[in-house]
Structure formats: C-alpha cells, structure tokens
Design brief:
Rossmann fold; three-stranded antiparallel beta sheet; seven-stranded mixed beta sheet; binds S-adenosylmethionine; 288 residues; alpha/beta; 9 helices
C-alpha cells in the first residue's frame, strides 16, 4: 500500500466515523424524544456532542449506540443524561453589571405598573431568581411582583425551591451583589447552617416554580419581563427562533426581554420586534 493509499484510507475511515457518529447521535435523540418526550434534536451540535461523549464514558459504555440502549432501558440513566445535557451552571447576580443596569433602566419602568409578572426561563438551581427577589425587595417592588421560575430539569428546580446554597460561594456572590448595586449587607438575606446557607423564607413568598420545557411546552401567561440567559446559546437557529416566538407571544406590549451576555435578538425572526434598552447588557423592549 502506498503512503497516498494509506492517507486516503485514513480519510475514508475518518469520514465514515463522523457519519456514523452523526447517525448515532440522531438515533439517540430520536429515541429520547419518542420514549421520554424530551426534545434535544435542535440543540447545537458541538456542545451536545461533547456532552454525549462525556456521558458515554461516565456510564462506562463504549459507543453512543450502547448509551442509547442504556438510556432507553434505564430511566435513571436517562435522568443522569438530562442533568448532564442541561448544564446547570449559574451564580447569584451573574454578570453584576446587567443587574445594575436593570435597576437603573428597567426598575423605573416597572414602578409605573400596578403589578409585575417576571418569568425566569431556564432558571437552573435558582440563583438568578433569588437575585431578582432581592433586587425587587430593595427597590420596594417585591410585594406587587410574581416571579415564575421554570426549567426542564426537575433536579435543579427542586434545589431552587429549597433556596439552600453552598456557603463557599457566598464570597463571590457578595462581591457580585455589591457590584450589582446592592444597598444592604448581603448576609442579611441568609442564615448559615453547616456548609450551606438558607435564604430568608420571605424571598420565596412570591416565587412560583414549575417544570417547563422551552422546546416542547407552550406559553402559560403574559409577562412584563422575561429573563432567559445562557440557555438559547445551546440551541440551533431553528429552536432559538421557536423560543423567541414563544417569548414574543408571552410578553406584554413594551415587555422586557433579557438575554445572556453571548446572546442576541439579532439574526432571529423577531429582531424588528424589539428595541435595545441596553445593547451591551442585552436588555430589549418589545415594540411590536
Ligand atoms: C447554563 S444554565 C443558565 C441558568 C441561568 N439562567 C443563568 O444564566 O445563570 C441553563 C439552564 O437552561 C436549562 N434548559 C436547557 N434547555 C432547556 C429547555 N429546553 N427548556 C427549559 N430549560 C432548559 C437547563 O436545564 C439549565 O438549568
């Protein structure tokens, strides 16, 4: 065999390997959708692929097809995969400048409303939701607010409902809180117990937690503000457009949409439906 043949056969194997991997991923996602009703078929491939391979190794199997077999026959394996694919990474007052800008530019608008409905879509373990409750409390708006916090990941939601967080993260959260324009001592909002902190129960009073999947579930209310940060970054263009449709339908006129630092309304079908209240912090206002 010449070195040219060798290279060609390697390329052939590599191309076939990629094609086979693509088929195996599609079959896995199709099986999950048909059997469990969770739809990951329109998630962006690069990060999905990485996470699936991570899970193949974590489950001690060799191939994506073997993982498919295990996932379809073992519900707990499926639940571990959902947790892994959902990337439940978050923090309190994440991107502090966004929360500062929200205080400065959105709070004055919210003051004029008789009541306020806020939806945190993809709230993960709830840090963003408790941050919002604290902000509204300090601005005197908490009593007339309802905060709806949803996620597809039931394990994360359970943690969010409990409002118990790791004490080791409080140093970073206190720093974020101060940078986000916090007006009190952050420790007023929690009680330490062993290695955890429990947030003050009054913060939960106006929070409603529910399982909701942005890929498959419909709109369930009308909102003045929707936060959906660091969620659509994992979706492909088709799913992103679908979710923007859902948000557009769910926002009241002049409703506020807040996206993550790496996300944008541009290059979606809804780019003309919003004006930027703050382009840098990704705060948009629905105008039509
Ligand atoms: C990286 S976390 C972002 C949490 C928080 N919004 C933040 O920015 O800190 C992404 C969250 O989106 C959720 N998520 C992913 N796909 C979803 C879907 N189709 N429907 C609802 N939530 C989803 C995940 O379960 C995860 O909790």
């Amino acid at each position: 065999m010449s070195s040219k043949d060798h290279t060609e056969s390697e390329i052939w194997r590599e191309d076939n390997g990629k094609e086979l991997e693509q088929i195996e991923i599609e079959l896995l996602l199709e099986g999950i959708h048909r059997f469990y009703g969770y739809d990951f078929r329109n998630y962006a491939i690069p990060s999905l692929r990485r996470r699936i391979w991570h899970h193949v190794h974590a489950e001690g199997v060799q191939t994506i097809s073997a993982l498919q077999n295990k996932v379809l026959h073992d519900r707990e394996c499926f639940q571990r995969l959902v947790y892994n694919l959902s990337i439940p990474v978050t923090e309190m007052f994440r991107d502090p400048n966004l929360f500062l800008t929200f205080r400065q530019k959105v709070v004055p608008l919210l003051r004029t409303y008789p009541y306020i409905r806020i939806w945190h879509a993809g709230c993960s373990t709830g840090e963003e939701v408790y941050s919002m409750a604290i902000l509204l409390h300090e601005e005197g708006l908490f009593e007339k607010s309802r905060i709806y916090a949803t996620d597809m990941n039931s394990r994360s939601l359970q943690q969010a409902k409990e409002g118990v967080f790791d004490i080791r993260r409080m140093k970073q959260y206190t720093k974020n809180y101060m940078e986000a324009g916090g007006t009190r001592s952050f420790s007023e909002y929690y009680t330490a117990k062993y290695n955890s902190v429990i947030f003050q129960p009054f913060l939960k009073k106006n929070m409603i937690f529910a399982e909701h999947n942005l890929a498959t579930d419909r709109s369930f209310n009308e909102f003045n503000v929707i936060f959906c940060r660091n969620v659509m970054i994992y979706f492909n263009d088709e799913l992103r457009n679908h979710v923007h449709g859902l948000f557009h339908e769910s926002l009241s006129h002049f409703g506020i949409l807040v996206l993550g630092a790496k996300e944008s309304i541009h290059f979606t079908d809804y780019s003309d439906s919003y004006e930027a209240l703050d382009r840098v912090e990704k705060i948009y206002r629905k105008i039509n």
